[in-house]
Amino acid sequence: MKGLSLTLMLLCVLLTSDLLTAQSQSYHQGRFSFSAGVGLLPAYMKDKSVSNSVPVNFRAGFRVSKIFSMNAFAGFASATTDTRSFGDGFATYLVNKSMAIGIRGQMEKEISNRMNIYGGIMLGYHFANIDEYMAGSRLPYERNLDAPTPYDPNAPEGKLLYAAYVGTSYFFTKTIGIYGELGYGISLLNMGFTLKI
Question: Considering the entire predicted model, what is its pTM?
Answer without folding.
Answer: 0.71
